[in-house]
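Hi R.,

Here's the chain you asked about this morning:
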Amino acid sequence: MTTNALTQTQTLAEVESVLRGLLPPGWTLAVERRPVGQCGWRPDVMLSIASSAGERVVFVGEAKPNGDARQISDALDHLRSHLDAVSDTRPMFIAPWLSARARQALADKGVSYADATGNVQLLAERPGMFVAGAGAHRNPWPTDKSLQSLRGKGAMRALRVLVDFAPPSRVRELAGRTNASAATLSRVIDLLVREGLAVRDDKGVVTDVDWAGAIRRWTQDYDVLRTNDGESFIQPRGLAALTDALRTTKLRYALTGSLAAQAFAPVAPAKLAMVYVDDFSNSADEFDLRPTDAGANVILLQPYDDIVFERLLVRNGLKLVNPSQLAADLLTGPGRSPSEGQELLAWMREHTDVWRA
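And here is the predicted structure, written out as tokens:
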């Protein structure tokens, strides 16, 4: 496959090859490029798939250069305006590459999709048909210098400020609330707008942010135990002894993970504590922790950036990371942490006044 950006012709050829490889034995695929439709309309492609039992499903596809929110919206509006008058056809969106967010948005709308890397979902109820495939997680053909990832301190700071402060907001205003530069903020906003997670008006004002979607997008590039430096310990007297020490310490810290989640959306008693600190050795001495390679009940973390210590909430005398940070840590954490992260997001929706400015 070429390393240059794919043309529409190349994209359709790759998708056809992908689909033929996914179909079960005895199934057939007929492809017609630019067929003439009603009123002279010519869709990009029409794919007719027949099962071994002779059941046939026809997908009418629009191929776009990328899968950003606007391209998807425009394509679906165009398809539906024509397909309403055509029976027994289903809309399909095609692009060189589709992000996880784009694929989910299409699936939520009940629209089939395929990209040239092998990300596929074809769905029909009558006759029943489901064909799926997994392709690239990252774009093999980034077409410009726009931000593709939320890795890096600046991008993470920008993401946090966009999540933590409710719009409307201007870039300069957001930059004043964090150490991220205006340029980095603009690029992060561009990424969120492209992926349908933020709305920006003609004057550049951010008018809406899907904060839960933005946190989930962040976790594609962030992992609590990889992005931060961590060391494992045992507190021999248990987590109650740790929390007692945290309440009285003068060291800077921020509690995260399952133990912090107990203050907002408890799922089950916490068995593991995760604590952001400045120094492993001093903190271990202060909290009476023993290093261990197995059976840890405490993980100390030296953070990727000091933003984890900003906008803390205090509960029961404990300093907790802001729920926006906690959600990302839980969703990428060990054990049952991801399910706790989902519960926390639900709590956050009901209590935005508590954690969001």
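One quick note: The chain has a mean pLDDT of 89.

Cheers,
M.
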